[in-house]
Amino acid sequence: MARSIDDLVDDFDLFEDWEERYRYIVDLGKKLPPMPEEEKTEDNKVRGCMSQVWLTCQAVNDQHGDGGDTVLTFRADSDAFIVKGLIAILLELYSGRTPKEIAELDATEALRKLGLESHLSPNRRNGFVAMVDRIRGEAQSRLP
């Protein structure tokens, strides 16, 4: 179920310093459901990430066939623990939303509100943006 940015901010506010927040991010990544090996293909790779990142998207609940009540669910994995945690944050924000909701959600605001923007290396920030671009691209391709 998708969560709001403010819900995630509340979670992050429970921790006093960034070392604890990093551990929390890594723990979130460890809780991601495993991605089947057969989905870790070149087509599912997210370009622009220093680490290996794979992402798949599935549209569900389109009962009328018009895309109006379709929600997108995402599955992703990485070979880096911190990146898996960032994926978990993105999936909490985006998975289970409609393409329109995804298109309207500002991940840079989430990055800023969570304080990640100033605590991630430039390469990690670029990878985060690449993952968001991929998710938003999946949503855009499903808009009417």
Automatic annotation (TrEMBL):
One Pfam family cited in the UniProt record for this chain: SufE
InterPro entries: Fe-S_metab-assoc_dom
Coiled-coil ranges (or none): none
Ranges where the Fe-S metabolism associated domain occurs: 10-136
Domain of life of the organism encoding this protein: Bacteria
Family of this protein: Belongs to the SufE family.
Name of the protein in question: SufE family protein
Lineage, opening ranks: Bacteria, Pseudomonadati, Pseudomonadota, Alphaproteobacteria, Rhodospirillales
